[in-house]
């Protein structure tokens, strides 16, 4: 009993059995819910072209036999579960990834039986829906790498979204709106930075206060000014979708990645820039040092406070851009509480992405997928109440946060104020 | 020698008490005052007449100040009159009652006060929910969803069971609220204890799940006959009795909430379990080494917290509305955080803060109808109050208070720790 190695193997054994059994249950569930009702002749049609696409040639739709595909997916899941039970599979992450893929595919095929469903259209809207989440996650990455937790991203995005639409409508210039959104984000983040760095306010409390303030002030302005002056203040229009020459002509990938709102391109660009800055530049090294061991960084002559201020404010600008996406990128007007928890989902994406810009982006895609899936499923009129489908992104977030898949370690000093000696 | 030491000791505790007074009374009071002040500035800035007067500042500076003062005083005057009623009306009504025996004017005069107490009732319980979490180092920002689920649970027990006597039905309905809210709190608590998933994100996610679930329930299984997506009215046996005839809605819920506050005080400060909660909140590592089961405390406290928020929803349904509709819990989640912070996570403080917020909320309706200031102004003020409470240094700096520099409480435990 006292042997820790033995205990370790015991708990991992128990985990193995638990995962194996739950995979078997998932497999049987898939069969019971999706597979059992499938008729031999049914097919599911997945559209592979956007309706208004500029790609070079159309490719044929993917037509799958429903019963065969479902049975195959169920078999794969059950086989993996049995293998895990009997022998164990080394990478739990891969295992759960593959099974989730099987489950989602089975769900899609079941829902599309005898119908047609624009698959590329959904993937394309996935990227759009992932954009504000990814920007929120990037904001989190930048500030938390310097050990400042910013939970006020939601409120920041709300305020930026509203500032963007108002200035854009007033000036009839979307670019002005975008810049104002980024500035709003910077200002709000600066307030957060001063509160937590200078006044050493608890970082979560400050973030929550920003969320409350943001929700209150945007609703206040909405009711006081926007509702009565929609055309003067709350009708900006949206950025035109830009198709990148040549690249947008690639089938499938073209319409997904290269026919988007400029904010989406900015987001993709930011992911790469931040990755390079964080891991291949002196500033990134300093940021990470401040996040992991501020005292050591201080000893080496890095100004801990300065690095934190700069990172939090840049993070706020990124969140501001995310806010602008809600109004200038998506619908062209402001609605109360239109961020609907995206700022918090972004934080979950950041954690799932292991505080890495690229990881954060990829996990945002996961949430975007869950979000766009539920919208498309409502269109397909699946026999599941739309309210339950709408829970999908939130439930995925909670599952991800359990850390069953790829547990990550936050920056060591995350969330703690620095006391200069 | 010993005498002086004794005297010093007494002096020290005296000074400490003074500091505690500054910390627990003066600072919150100043925070609220400053929040109202900034709110006043927002009122002035959003008032067309005041802005017009400021445009002509160089011609008539006095008029600018007067217009600003008018805007703010009308708004806040309406706020407090709407919340507390006016004393002159009250005494006039009292006189009418004495001379004619007519109670109608008297009831009308105390109507605003009754509404404030009605508004304070769920605040007390929801504030306690967040406060008990704080005491254990947990940040429950999901009171809104828990409250909604509690309301639905209480409503379901309230309307689906027919024919029970009130002394069984009412407690059962309250229990239904507590259980539904408790489950909603227990899930993030369990995820925190088992997997280290941060409760702040998870409680928010549970909020959204609660909203979606309530959409489904209100349009589906729990919908009353008719067009509106609301639950049926609860049975009369499940209602919290009211003290006065309609339209006064003041009911037993208020005293129930006070009793719960007293119970939470007893639980936190007079029991071993309460000691454990506070120990875990102060230092989870030390508590663990002292042999306390930190994880079990996390789950239990989140369950209690959710149950308290659920009770808040239950008292609102059973005492005031008698049915639940969409958007039922809007705003309560954030309000309750402000309450817990303002009340320094102490049951008595939470009750006082809840009374204050009850006044602000019920008065805000009147303010909106008199001077067209949206109710959301109160949320803005709340956000500011939270910042000022959490950053006492700002208040010290504004008002030049030098005494009583207390330790900052750190609630953040980071992600997955």
Description:
The complex is a heterodimer of chains A (421) and B (417). Chain A is mainly α and 421 residues long. Chain A folds into 2 domains: 4-114, no CATH class; 123-401, ABC transporter involved in vitamin B12 uptake, BtuC, CATH 1.10.3470. Helices cover 69% and strands 4% of the residues of chain A. Chain A is built from 17 helices and 5 strands. Chain A has helices spanning 4-35, 66-86, 92-112, 119-145, 153-171, 174-198, 203-226, 230-233, 253-257, 262-280, 282-292, 294-299, 304-331, 342-352, 357-380, 386-390, 392-401, and strands spanning 43-47, 62-65, 116-118, 242-243, 259-260. In chain A, the strands form 2 sheets. In chain A, strands 2-1-3 form a 3-stranded mixed sheet. A two-stranded antiparallel ribbon of chain A has the order 4-5. In chain A, helix 4 packs antiparallel against helix 13 (304-331), helix 5 packs parallel to helix 7 (203-226) and helix 10 (262-280) crosses helix 11. Chain A is globular, with a radius of gyration of 24 Å. The model of chain A has no long low-confidence stretch (mean pLDDT 84). Chain B has 417 residues and is mainly alpha-helical. Chain B has a domain at 119-370: Orthogonal Bundle (ABC transporter involved in vitamin B12 uptake, BtuC). Chain B contains 16 helices and no strands. Chain B has helices at residues 2-45, 48-55, 61-84, 87-100, 104-135, 143-160, 166-195, 199-219, 253-270, 272-282, 284-289, 294-321, 332-342, 347-371, 377-390, 392-399. In chain B, helix 5 runs antiparallel to helix 12 and helix 6 (143-160) packs across helix 13. The longest helix of chain B has 44 residues, at 2-45. Chains A and B meet through helix 7, helix 14, helix 16 and helix 17 of A and helix 7, helix 8, helix 13 and helix 15 of B.
């Amino acid at each position: 009993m006292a042997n820790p190695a033995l205990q370790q193997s015991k708990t991992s054994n128990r985990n193995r059995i638990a995962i194996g059994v739950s995979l078997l249950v998932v497999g049987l569930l898939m069969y019971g819910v999706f597979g059992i009702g499938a008729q031999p002749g049914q097919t599911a049609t997945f559209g592979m072209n956007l309706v208004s696409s500029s790609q070079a040639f159309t490719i044929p739709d993917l037509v799958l036999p429903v019963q065969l595909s479902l049975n195959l997916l169920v078999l794969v899941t059950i086989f993996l579960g049995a293998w895990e039970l009997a022998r164990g599979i080394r990478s739990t992450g891969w295992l759960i990834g593959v099974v989730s893929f099987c489950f989602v595919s089975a769900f899609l095929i079941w829902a599309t039986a005898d119908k047609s469903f624009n698959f590329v259209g959904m993937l394309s809207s996935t990227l759009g829906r992932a954009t504000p989440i990814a920007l929120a996650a990037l904001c989190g990455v930048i500030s938390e790498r310097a050990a400042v937790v910013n939970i006020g991203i939601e409120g920041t995005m709300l305020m930026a979204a509203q500032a963007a639409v108002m200035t854009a409508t007033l000036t009839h210039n979307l670019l002005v709106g975008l810049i104002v959104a980024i500035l709003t984000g910077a200002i709000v983040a600066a307030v957060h930075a001063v509160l937590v760095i200078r006044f050493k306010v608890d970082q979560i409390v400050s973030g929550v206060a920003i969320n409350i303030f943001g929700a209150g002030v945007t609703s206040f302005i909405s009711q006081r000014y926007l509702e009565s002056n929609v055309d003067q203040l709350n009708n900006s229009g949206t950025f035109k979708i830009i198709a990148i020459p040549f690249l947008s002509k690639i089938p499938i990938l073209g319409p997904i990645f290269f026919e988007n709102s400029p904010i989406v391109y900015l987001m993709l660009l930011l992911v790469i820039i931040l990755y390079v800055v964080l891991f291949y530049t002196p500033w990134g090294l300093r940021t990470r040092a401040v996040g992991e061991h501020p005292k050591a960084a201080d000893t080496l002559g890095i100004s801990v406070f300065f690095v934190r201020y700069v990172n939090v404010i840049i993070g706020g600008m990124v969140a501001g851009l995310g806010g602008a996406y809600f109004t200038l990128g998506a619908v062209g007007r402001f609605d109360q509480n239109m961020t609907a928890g995206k700022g918090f989902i972004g934080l979950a994406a950041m954690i799932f992405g292991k505080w890495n810009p690229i990881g954060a982006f990829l996990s945002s895609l996961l949430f975007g997928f869950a979000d766009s899936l539920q919208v498309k499923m409502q269109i397909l009129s699946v026999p599941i109440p739309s309210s339950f489908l709408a829970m999908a992104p939130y439930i995925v977030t909670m599952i991800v946060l359990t850390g069953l898949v790829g547990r990550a370690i936050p920056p060591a000093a995350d969330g703690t104020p620095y006391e200069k000696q | 020698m010993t005498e002086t030491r004794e005297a010093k000791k007494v002096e020290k505790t005296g000074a400490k008490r003074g500091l505690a007074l500054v910390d627990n009374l003066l600072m919150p009071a100043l925070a609220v005052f400053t929040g109202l002040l900034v709110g006043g500035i927002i009122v002035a800035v959003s008032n067309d007449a005041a802005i017009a007067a400021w445009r002509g500042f160089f011609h008539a500076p006095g008029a600018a100040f007067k217009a600003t003062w008018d805007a703010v005083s009308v708004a806040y005057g309406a706020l407090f009159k709407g919340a507390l009623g006016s004393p002159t009306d009250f005494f006039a009504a009292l006189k009418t009652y004495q001379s004619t025996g007519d109670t109608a004017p008297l009831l009308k005069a105390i109507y605003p006060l009754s509404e404030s107490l009605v508004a304070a009732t769920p605040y007390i319980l929801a504030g306690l929910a967040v406060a008990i979490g704080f005491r254990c180092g947990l940040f429950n920002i999901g009171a809104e969803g828990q409250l909604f689920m509690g309301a639905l649970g209480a409503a379901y027990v309230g309307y689906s069971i027919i024919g029970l006597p009130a002394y069984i039905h009412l407690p059962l309905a309250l229990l239904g609220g507590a259980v539904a809210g408790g489950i909603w709190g227990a899930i993030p608590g369990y995820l925190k204890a088992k997997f280290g998933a941060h409760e702040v994100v998870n409680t928010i996610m549970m909020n959204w799940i609660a909203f979606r679930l309530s959409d489904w329930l209100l349009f589906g299984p729990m919908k009353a006959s008719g067009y509106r997506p609301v639950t049926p009215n609860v049975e009369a046996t499940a209602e919290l009795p009211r003290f006065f005839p309609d339209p006064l809605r003041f009911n037993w819920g208020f005293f129930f909430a006070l009793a719960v506050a007293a119970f939470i005080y007893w639980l936190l400060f007079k029991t071993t379990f309460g000691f454990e909660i506070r120990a875990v909140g102060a230092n989870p590592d030390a508590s663990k080494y002292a042999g306390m089961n930190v994880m079990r405390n996390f789950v239990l406290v989140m369950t209690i917290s959710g149950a308290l928020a659920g009770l808040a929803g239950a008292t609102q349904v059973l005492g005031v509305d008698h049915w639940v509709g969409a958007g039922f819990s809007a705003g309560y989640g954030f309000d309750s955080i402000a309450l817990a912070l303002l009340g320094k996570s102490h049951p008595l403080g939470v009750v006082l803060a809840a009374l204050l917020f009850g006044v602000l909320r019920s008065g805000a309706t009147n303010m909106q109808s008199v001077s067209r200031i949206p109710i959301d102004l109160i949320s803005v003020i709340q956000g500011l109050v939270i910042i000022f409470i959490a950053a006492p240094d700002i208040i010290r700096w504004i008002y030049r208070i030098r005494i009583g520099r207390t330790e900052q409480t750190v609630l953040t435990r980071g992600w997955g720790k």
